[in-house]
Design goal:
By secondary structure, this protein is of the alpha+beta class. 43% of the residues lie in helices and 11% in strands. The N and C termini lie far apart (50 Å). The mean pLDDT is 97. The structure holds adenosine-5'-diphosphate, 2-acetamido-2-deoxy-1-O-phosphono-alpha-D-glucopyranose (GN1) and magnesium ion (MG). The site of magnesium ion (MG) has 3 residues, from loops.
């Protein structure tokens, strides 16, 4: 699809003038463009066509992000030397005073200041970077812990609810809309054999042993920007910030920060959870949140990466069986390849579980 990016850019109140716009980043959900402005001393922008098939209520979604970014910016302003334009996403208002617009074809768009001089990693190659990522998420969670104004909207209901995700998988296997279910019998078996164990976090929540907090819910490492010196800079992609368990954020960050290969690696022998990266991320994270977590939350941190990696595997597999309606794909079997890679990563975590537990125990 080709969009007239200049026309869309002009719906928003900006300093600079449009020079050009290019697709940007490797997100799986929205269409993201970097907009360069003509003036060298003015900000560039990130313009996003929002996926309103996935996020069904854009006004609520944007209201969440407005609240979260205002709260974070207020906090940052109290910290001497902080750079509010780079350490927090900055939404750009439209000429009619909203944080999003609808174009003449009915597409929803929003715009942020482009965070300059950042680094973004799909694969993490050093403990220092993993540590910084952990600090960024820990700090993000701590800063949001006292956000006033009541709960955020649930932008995607039951997003990490593994019981519901498994029910959807079963439903899609039975429906088998594109005739792929038989070809993934082995992956389905891998999923089923672990299903019961994965419900523990939900059970702890229901029993009141772990609290719902404000969590990010999509902490894959490329949603954590580092600065030019590879220090924690900004947590982005705030679409799913809503009530959740801390395990979801810890787990998703570990899923992506510690994998020695890509999320969609075809050569499964390259996929491993690197325990040194696990230790470093955990150190960074717990250095910011250590005191706020209760004992049960801490006890189950080491299990969180299994749960989230498994959940993402289930979601990729479900989307494959469903005929690829959710995640952006780059080739026909992409979702299957992703599901296989994630299942392999779950096995690697299982092999190292005792060590993961002992690291968390020592750090807490
Ligand atoms: P998706 O939900 O599709 O992943 P994101 O909001 O994460 O969308 O944006 C996609 C990518 O665009 C990010 O991974 C990041 O590389 C880049 N990006 C998003 N917002 C900004 C920003 N404000 N400044 C710089 N880069 C950004
Ligand atoms: C999507 O938006 P993005 O690309 O950062 C997805 C996450 C998955 C991830 C897998 C809203 O994240 O839940 O973990 O892909 N986001 C949504 O890479 O579904
Ligand atoms: Mg993203």
């Amino acid at each position: 699809m080709v969009y007239n990016l200049k026309e869309i850019f002009d719906y928003f109140i900006t300093d600079g003038t449009f020079l050009n716009g290019e697709p940007y980043g490797s997100g799986h959900i929205h269409d993201t463009f970097r907009i360069e402005t003509a003036e060298k001393d003015k900000d560039d922008y990130i313009l996003q066509r929002l996926n309103n098939k996935i996020f069904k209520n854009i006004p609520e979604l944007q209201q969440n992000i407005e609240r979260v970014t205002i709260h974070l910016r207020n906090k940052l302003e109290q910290i001497p030397g902080s750079d509010t334009k780079r350490e927090c996403l900055c939404l750009i208002p439209s000429h009619d005073g909203k944080s999003w617009i609808i174009d003449k074809d009915g597409n929803y768009w929003r715009m942020y200041i482009f965070i300059s001089n950042h680094r973004s990693y799909n694969i993490v190659d050093s403990p220092d970077k993993a540590f910084e990522g952990g600090k960024a998420i820990g700090r993000f969670q701590a800063m949001l812990s006292d956000m006033p104004g009541g709960p955020l909207f649930e932008t995607i209901p039951s997003f990490h609810n593994i019981e519901k995700r498994l029910n959807t998988l079963t439903h899609k296997i039975n429906e088998d809309p594109v005739g792929r279910a038989d070809s993934v019998a082995e992956e389905i078996k891998q999923v089923h054999k672990r299903a019961e164990d994965m419900k523990i976090i939900l059970k702890l929540g229901l029993a009141g042993k772990i609290p719902l907090r404000i969590t990010h819910n999509d902490t894959k490492f490329n949603n954590i920007l580092l600065d030019e010196y590879d220090k924690a800079l900004c947590v982005i992609d705030l679409d799913t910030v809503m009530p959740g368990y801390v395990h979801y954020d810890f787990g998703d960050a570990i899923r992506t920060a510690t994998n020695t290969a890509s999320e969609d690696e075809t050569d499964l022998s390259k996929i491993r959870m690197d325990i040194n990266l696990f230790r470093a991320y955990s150190e960074g994270y717990l250095s910011e949140t250590g005191d706020t977590l209760n004992d049960v939350e801490k006890e189950f941190l080491a299990f969180a990466p299994h749960l989230i990696t498994y959940t993402i595997a289930v979601r990729f597999l479900t989307d494959y069986i469903d005929g690829d309606n959710y995640f952006k794909i780059h080739h026909k079997h992409h979702n299957l390849q992703r599901a296989r890679a994630q299942l392999r990563l779950v096995s690697s975590m299982e092999e190292q579980y005792e060590e993961m537990r002992s690291i968390i125990r020592k750090l807490t």
